[in-house]
Backbone:
């Protein structure tokens, strides 16, 4: 995994992939699956995730104020779904799903070696939790082993899709030259 | 297009597709492309979009307080990109891109016949605009001609992907039975 510029991390969130969010509670790691997330602003490395007290990771994230967001490729589809269908309350998911941890640079939660993208994040703002279950995360360090890969998307009904190969439309992006460089 | 239950509209936003947002300013229709959007809560038909004053549709959306969000399929990939690369300030995009308008039931902006999903929306909350460019939209009427179709995703760099066929993982969704019914 190589370090990736923070100015371009929005490119991993914008396509709307299913993500993995890992926390460390001081004793052990946990990981959850989620897909409610969005870019807040492409000029700063901020994105929003929707979480709530029903998630086992919620209290840890709020108390530790940091996490790692990893983006799995399609070869992890089954694992990604299964991680979202058990709970850290009674399961060591890193062990159960044979995830390889890599030490992060700025946060205590681990990177996941099997994921092409790993984003070390801190909580920027949790004032929108009560109204909208929203937490704004700031990426403080980004790692990438592969820039384009088949991301996973959830249709919200237990069916998923994976990406096609990328289709190059750069020549049509005449109004947005800053995005294609 | 058939009416679609509001309780399930999150299923069209959760996978992170590129969307079209149409407005009517009292005289003419306009449409823009965007892909910063997320489900706020699957139990209510709310979702967030990120927009700003740099978008020609912004003032109209804020003054009219309503819009239509249409979700294009992959057969509209080129059109969807091109709609995002010209401006309603000098272009009648519905005319230029040969979009067929259908009268909406609850808002003045039009549905787009060529899109499998059309969501009539009102502004629920624009108090997050200054801080995060976020507008919370509430779907008040939903229309669907096809539930599963190849949505478009933007990698944020002028390359796009389209969905694979849906992959059925319902049997693994043991903790979330409410999502698969």
Residues:
């Amino acid at each position: 995994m190589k370090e990736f510029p923070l100015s371009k991390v929005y490119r991993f969130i914008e396509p709307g992939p299913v993500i993995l969010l890992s926390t460390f509670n001081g004793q052990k790691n946990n990981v959850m699956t989620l897909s409610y997330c969005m870019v807040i602003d492409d000029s700063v490395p901020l994105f929003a995730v929707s979480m709530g007290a029903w998630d086992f990771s919620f209290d840890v994230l709020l108390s530790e104020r940091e996490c790692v967001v990893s983006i799995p490729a399609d070869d992890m589809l089954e694992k990604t779904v299964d991680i979202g269908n058990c709970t850290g309350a009674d399961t060591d998911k890193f062990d159960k799903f044979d995830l390889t941890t890599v030490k992060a640079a700025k946060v205590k939660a681990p990177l996941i070696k099997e994921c092409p993208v790993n984003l070390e994040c801190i909580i920027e703002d949790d004032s929108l939790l009560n109204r909208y279950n929203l937490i704004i995360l700031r990426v403080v360090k980004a790692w990438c082993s592969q820039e384009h890969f088949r991301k996973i998307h959830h249709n919200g009904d237990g069916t998923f899709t994976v990406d096609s190969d990328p289709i190059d439309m750069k020549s049509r992006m005449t109004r947005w030259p800053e995005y294609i460089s």
Summary: The longest helix of chain A spans residues 57-64.
